Amino acid sequence: MKQNKDQNYKTGVLEFEDNLLLPALYGEHNSFLSRIENEFGCELIGKGNLLSVEGPEEACNLSRDVLLSLYNRLEEGLDVTLDDVDGAIRLVAMFEPPTANNADRRENIANDDNVIRTRKALISPRSVNQAKYIEALRYGNMTFGLGPAGTGKTFLAVAMAVSHLLEGKVERIILSRPAVEAGEKLGFLPGDLKEKVDPYLRPLYDALGQMISMEQTEKRLERGEIEVAPLAFMRGRTLSDAFVILDEAQNTTPMQMKMFLTRFGQNCHMVVCGDPSQTDLPDGSVSGLKDALDTIKGINDIAFIEFNADDVVRHKLVGKIVRAYDEKESRKS
Q1: What is the rounded CA–CA span in Å between residue 242 and residue 172?
Q2: Alpha-carbon Rg of the chain, whole angstroms?
Q3: pLDDT per residue over 224-277, tens digit each?
Q4: 50-56 and 116-117: which strand pairing?
Q5: Omega of the bond prior to 190 within 30 degrees of 0, cis?
Q6: How does pLDDT run across 6-47, given as a tens digit for each residue?
Q7: How remote is the C-alpha of 108 from its chain's centroid?
Q8: Strands (E), the chain
Q9: In whole angstroms, what is the distance from residue 293 CA to residue 131 CA?
Q10: CA–CA separation, 159 vs 311, rounded Å?
Q11: Where does residue 31 rank: exposed (0-12), middle (13-18), buried (19+ CB within 10 A)?
Q12: Which of 72, 77, 136, 176 is most buried (most C-beta within 10 Å)?
């Protein structure tokens, strides 16, 4: 980029080889460019295959890095959504000030090894911890994903499970979560057993629907290739040749968690997702997730990936809310 008279202000031009990719890069009505402008305080003006970048030097550098990472994504045949734009913004902001070392670290996060491929989606990490989590899911046997809502713990685990199933690495996916939360009893809910537990398992169905079609999901459920069941259904089983996910693990008791972890069998990939700070168990009850962390965290063959407010990939307001609660808890201690 060319330097202006004002040493803190820069004007530069990005030149893109493929004009056909630019509508997807800029977004409908240039909405993606507007998001980048609002985030960094720069001005982006496109003309043909050239994009002018003007503003404070740091804003220009950050904007350029975001645009190039998104353009590379399009060149690889991946879609770009507003969530992808926000993810790219988050990644470049994490590695400031810009250095060659930071550029290498960003490249390592965004490389093809960290992409999860399913029938309907190609999923890339949107934070450093998500990249670590994907690596653990891909190569590890047992992984704990710990942290607040909106960090992608369950979504990424389900995506990796589907990827393993489609690639023939496992024969089935087993998705589970505690069916009783906040002291409620299934007997108080209307309907048969399926109708009773479906509301608790709906988030897992929704995640599956984003990876493969709902029609495919239903067929694989019927064939037993995908099983979605309450945690109580795990008792007495040995889970082999399977990708097994326990969601909302903070709502287990210590005995339930021990029972689940000891179901581990041959060629099993087991993932435990939960937020230790959001237990819905009755007052005075010990969370099975917290108990497990105290008990098995020293075992080398188990990966523990901890997420925080910086990893929240929902609306920015969610990240701010998580930070506010974290700060409140820190003041208490």
Answers
A1: 5
A2: 22
A3: 999 988 888 888 899 999 999 999 999 999 999 999 999 999 999 999 999 998
A4: unpaired
A5: no
A6: 557 778 899 999 989 999 999 999 999 999 999 999 999 998
A7: 17
A8: 2-3, 9-15, 43-47, 50-56, 116-117, 122-123, 142-146, 172-177, 226-230, 242-246, 268-274, 302-306
A9: 22
A10: 17
A11: exposed
A12: 176
How far is residue 206's CA from residue 217's CA, in Å, rounded to a whole number?
10
| CA–CA distances in Å: residue 65 to residues 12, 59, 270 | 13, 10, 36
Tokens of 138: 């891909």
Q: Report whether 242 contacts 268 (CB < 8 A).
A: yes
Q: Are 170 and 164 in contact (CB under 8 A)?
A: yes
d(C-alpha 169, C-alpha 22), whole Å: 37
pLDDT, tens only, 123-162? 878 788 998 999 999 999 999 999 998 899 999 999 999 9
State pTM to two decimals: 0.74
Q: 277 near 61, Cβ under 8 Å?
A: no
Beta-bridge partner residues of 268: 242
Please state whether 173 falls in left (phi above 0), alpha (psi between -120 and 50) or beta: beta
CA atoms 143, 147, 148, 152: torsion sign: negative
Q: Which amino acid is at 218?
A: E
Which residues contact residue 306 at a Cβ distance below 8 angstroms, ignoring those fewer than 6 apart?
129, 146, 147
Residue 44 contacts by C-beta under 8 Å, 6 or more apart in sequence? Answer: 30, 33, 36, 37, 51, 52, 53, 63, 67
Which residue matches tokens 């709902």?
214
CA dist., res. 225 & res. 243, Å (int): 10
Q: What is the DSSP string of 170-236?
A: -SEEEEEE-S--TT--GGGS-SSHHHHHHHHHHHHHHHHHHHS-HHHHHHHHHHTSEEEEEGGGGTT
